Each structure stands twice: as structure tokens, then as C-alpha cells.
Amino acid sequence: MLNLLLEVKPRDVPYTVALRNTAAVTLPLALGAATDHLGIGLGISAGALNTMFADQPGPYRLRLRRMLATAAGAGLSAFAGYTLGGNDAAIVLAALAWGIAGGLLVALGPDAGRVGLTSMILLVVTSADPRPPLEALGPALLIFSGGVLLMLSAIAAWPLQRYRPERMALAQTCRQLAASARTRDDTAQAPPVTQALTDVENLLHGRDRSGGVAMGAFRVLAELIERIRLELLALGGLRSGSVEDEAALVRLREYAARTLDAIATALDAGQPALTASAALEGFDAVQDSLDKSGDADNFRLIAVAHARALGGQLRAAVRNTDIAGSRGELRLAAREAALPRDLRPRNPFAILRANLHLSSVAFRHAIRCGACLALAVAGARIAGIGHGYWVPMTCAIVLKPDFAGTFRIGLLRVAGTLLGLILATALVHVAFGDVWSRLVLLAVLCFGFRELTTMHYGLGVMLLTALIVVLLSFEGMTPADTMAARALGTGIGSALALLAYALWPTWERGRVRGALADLLDAYRQYFSAVVGDDTRVRADVRASSRRARSNAQASLDRLRGEPRRKNLVATAEGIFANANRFLRAAMALESVRQSVKPFADRSAIESFATSADHAMSALAAALRNSSKASAGIGLRAAQSRLRDALRAPDTHNDPVLVAAWIDASDRITDSIDTLAHVLGRDAAAASS
């Protein structure tokens, strides 16, 4: 739990994004001050500030829809807050409705969750300044206009750099894969670059995809990167007793990494990957030396097969980069790899309907949000707290669907607010001067807030607190009043949010087994698709496996932040690690299947695959029921029968594929046996 508070994440907001967000917040205020319309500028700046975090990576079409929805939600919520703020009963009921609706939106993902949070914040903030409907329309439109201004700045490059988001995403994936190629993989961890490939898949195949030959080229390149990752994983999983062989593998991965870096640089610039030729020549030289050295044992057979496949895929990626990196609409049709089936968009109304029951984490979160928001609004008004909107606003921000997130955000918000008030106090005495000096100060704080919030929430809140003090000074509110109200409201709101979660928690310890069982089922289906050699099905289940892995990883991370969970964390980590060992073996097998002719007689393979499938299914069921699993018993005998059948002298099987199947089946059997052991230990501990 302490690590959650101290963790500083890598910077993930480009400077250009922070600069354009800062400009959208400060320029309207500057123009308002210059033209003596400070109130108009302040309203537009406030709208831009509230829409800022909707400016996330993705296709321009998706950015437009996401930011427009956030701006519209902010404008409508502001209008409701202005018009209902004069009636205590009405605004309390509105807070209840907004809290439930906004909290339920987390079921649709983080983007929809931001829309809900922004709407809740604008409702309670504007309710402090009640106005008649006609008078409320103008300020609400200004807030909406600020969000639209921010949206326009985010999509301004659309006509000139139509495919830049796609190129940047693919370039980042290549760089991450290159970095992974230079390190020795931990087979207990999830395959590297998983999240980056998931993001690329959503970018290129989601409902906001664009059509045309250009996008086809990008999709082919993404598929090639996926296949390159498979070969790199396979090479990384090989072990040899020869120092020379191990050194050759390291050199192969290094030259592959250099090629991927060259592809990434080319994608960044939108130019052909001309610098990749030297790395490919070095790759070929190492491959030839490995092919010609020593006897053709199992290690060299598999290593050379993977090296040849990897070299071909790297060349295909370089060629495709030449096409995908060209400017404007591309003319060449992409035919180098089969494209995965387009992902079907999810129906948001069906998802929301499916979450309308108390067992849903999103619905429980929605009820907590609604109740807390209504109680905070009512309590602040009954107590007569000055600028009491800080209390419900803090509740809305702090409350998360899980304990670890609520605990972390609550404590960091209090700590960040106190540090921010200290910073604001220093700024009041040192840097508060005329309008223009405050504008410069506002720009600096806004830029820092946008950059640091995703790295460390406490640091972001510290800068936001000082930023709000400066922003409200343009409305005539003295810094002393702002700081006192913020400190009191933040403390009460955070305490209320933590109390609400303590009274009605949603513990991850009751959900993590289900997430891990889903992971085992997804991996089982992926292995079955590899055995069946169905390219289309394999692409589909690969996407399902990634989603299941992301869900399981997120569940495990949330579990680590909960108290009294040491034994369960150890069990969950053991299941996650051994499930990933199973997956890596299946992925290594898929990489060989892509370039080697399959067996004529598949009976032995299908028998082993059926046994492994039944074992994984039984493990998933035992995990959901918290029962002991003996699913791995007997699988080793099936693996031995497979090995003997493949090595039979009269089969004439491809030696590369034989070696790959023997190695993969051994790793699969070991991982399933270990999973059964971990689950048996967990069941014994639960019954004792």
C-alpha cells in the first residue's frame, strides 16, 4: 500500500500535448484580459481545463468524439448546476442522479468514466452560483466552448498528418519490442509489449478505424510486428549448453532490435527504413554461422528455423514501412499477411444493462458515487460551509471502483492539496502581481499539472491546487479564501469517500479468482486455435487473450493494495506466472507453425491437445470454486506418448516441427502440473 503512494510512473504525456492544452487554457483568459472581457475568457478557460484529460492518444476521429462528448457533458452539467443550485432539494436529487449515472459509466471504460467524472464536477461547482435558466445558458455555453476549443487544438493536424497517430503507435511498439529483444525474458511474466499491441489493435481495428489502402498497410505492419514478437519470444526461450550458441542468439536478437529501431525511426519521419539494411546484413551473417556450425541437434534445428522466419518477417516489415510511411493516401494494396477480423464494436447500452445489478463492480461504484455526492451536497449546504462545492467534488474524484484506487487517490489528494496550499502561499507573496504575471504563472502550473498528474497523482494535485488559486483570483476571489475552502473541503470530501468505501466495500479478493479463471480459459482457447492452425480464429482468440490478461493483471494489482491478503496474493501471482509460462510455450509453437509444413498424421497431437484442454478447463473450474485441482495428473504420460509418436522412425515428420512440439508440450505439461499444485495448496489453506 505504501508503494502505491510512492510509485512514480514514467512520463507518458508528450510535451506537445501539454503545450497545446496549456495554450487552450491560458489563451482565452489572455484575450479576455486584453479585450476587457475577463469573464468570458475565464469561462472558456474553465471549460478547457475540465476537458483537458480527454485529450488522449488515438485516431483523430476518436479524439473528436471523445472530447466532444466530454465538452457536451460539461456544458449540460454546468447548465443543470446553475439552474438547480438555488433549490436545495433539487440539487441534492440532481447530485444523486449524476453520481449514479457518472459512476456507472466506468463500465464502458476510462474514456466514458472521464465524461462522468467531469459532469459530476461541473454540476456541483456551478451549483454554488445559481442563476435563472436564461442567464445560465451563456456561462454553460462558454464552458462547452472551452472544451470545443481544446478539441480543435487536438485535431488541428488531422488534414496535414492524417495517419500520424497510427505511425506513432506502431513506432512506439517497435521501440518497446526492440528493448525487449535486448533483455532476457522472464518466462513467468506476461509476454512483453502486450499493452502496446493491444493499443495498436484497438487503434487499427476498433470502431473508429478509417478505411482505404493506407490503413490496410498499417494493419499488415501490425500483424508482422505480432509475428516478429512470436519469433523473438521463441528465440528468447531457447537454452543451450554451448556458450557460442547462446552468444549467437544474443547477436540475433540485437540485430533484430536494431532493425526494429530503424523501422520506428522511419515511421516517426514518415520515410522508408533505409538504415535497416546494415542490421539485416548482420542478422543474416549470424544466422548463416549458426546454420553451418556443428551437428543439427534439436537446439540448432529450432534456432535456425526461428531465425529464418524472423529474418523474413523483419524484411517484410521494412518493405511495408516503405509503403506505410509514405505521405498522403497510399496506392499499394497490402498482401503480405492475413489481416485479423475487424473487432466488432461493443453495444454500450447492452453493457450498461448488464451492469445493473449489485454484483457488478460498476453498479456498486455508481451507488456509492450517487449517495456520497448527494450527502456531500446536502451536508455542505446544511453546515453552511463556504465554497462547499469542494466537498462533493473531492468525493467524486476520490471514489474509485476498487479499494486500492480509492485509498491511494484519497491520501494523495489530501497530501497534494496541503503541499499545493503551501506552494500557493509562497506564490501569493512572491509572484502575485498584475494580470499578465498571473497568466504566466497559470501557464507554468497548467503545463506542470498536465505532465505530472499521470506520473504521480499527489504532485499533480499539488500543482492543481496552486493553479485553482491563481485561476479563481481572476474572478476576484482572494487567495486566502480559496486556500481555506480548498483545505477544508478536500479533507472532508476525502474522509467521506473513504468512509463510504469502508461501509460498503468491493473487495478484489472476491473477484481475482474469477479474473484468473477467465485468463486460463482464454489461454486454453488460444492453444486450441494454434493446434487447429486456423489463422482467423487464432487472431480472434489472441485479442481475447490480451483482454483477459489485462483484466487479470489489473485485478492482481488491485489485490496487492488491499489489507489482509498476503496468502491470496501469493496464490494469484503463482497462477498468473504459470499461466504465462503456458502461453509462452503456445506462442513459441505458433511461431514454428507459421513457416513449417504441418504433420500428416495429427492423431498424437490432437490427443495431447485434448488432454491439455481438459486439464486447463478443470483448473479454471477449480479456481472459480476455490476447490482442489488434480487436473495435471496424467498429462505427463500423454506428453510422453506424444514424444514417442513424433520420434517414430517411420513418420518422416519435419525435424524442426518435431523438436518444437516436444519442447512446447514439455513446457505446457510442466506449467499445468504447477498450476494444479498451486491451486491444491490454496484449497488446503482455505480449508484449514
Explain how this protein is built:
The protein has helices at 2-6, 15-34, 38-51, 60-84, 88-104, 110-126, 133-154, 164-181, 194-205, 213-237, 243-269, 276-292, 298-324, 348-354, 361-383, 390-398, 403-430, 435-452, 457-473, 479-503, 512-532, 535-560, 566-593, 603-625, 635-646, 655-687. The chain has 688 residues and is mainly alpha-helical. The protein folds into 3 domains: 2-158 and 347-506, no CATH class; 164-324, no CATH class; 526-687, no CATH class. Helix 4 (60-84) runs antiparallel to helix 7 and helix 11 runs antiparallel to helix 12. The protein is globular, with a radius of gyration of 28 Å. The model is unreliable at 325-346 (pLDDT under 50).
Tally of alpha and pi helices: 26
Amount of helix: over 70%
Span between N and C termini? 27 Å
Q: Which regions have little confidence, pLDDT < 50, spanning 5+ residues? A: 325-346
What is the alpha-carbon Rg in Å?
28 Å
Structural class: mainly alpha
The secondary-structure element order is: HHHHHHHHHHHHHHHHHHHHHHHHHH
The outline comes out as globular
Number of strands: 0
Reported for the largest beta sheet, the result is: none
Strand content: under 5%
Oligomeric state of this protein: single chain
Q: Total domains, how many? A: 3
Mean pLDDT: 80
